[in-house]
Amino acid sequence: QVALVESGGGLVQAGGSLRLSCAASGRAFSSRIMGWFRQAPGREREFVAAIHWSGSSTYPSTSVKGRFTISRDNAKNTVYLQMNDLKPEDTSIYYCAADRQSSAWYHTSAHDYEYWGQGTQVTVSS
Question: How far is it, in rounded angstroms, from Cα 111 to Cα 1?
Fold first, then answer.
């Protein structure tokens, strides 16, 4: 069992930055692929970024590549999403997720993650 709690969301002007944090408790955080997803009302849940359990490889989506950076600190059981140059279309609820422990490099589908946080709202104004 893994529990995840996101924080760091809020209201920011276009072009600004936010850093989201996801604090994990439970078993084997250091052996799990972690991901960030986002979902706005009436829209599909969208993959944002993933990070290998070792932290050595990251996999941002094409929509955020160059602006968002995923990282993790296994000593603190925490994964981060640094968001720069935010745009109004980034407005969404952001969720972090953990997989079951696997030998995969990363997952882009929500179906491949087993544990989810409650989400944190990010709103970007023009």
Answer: 17
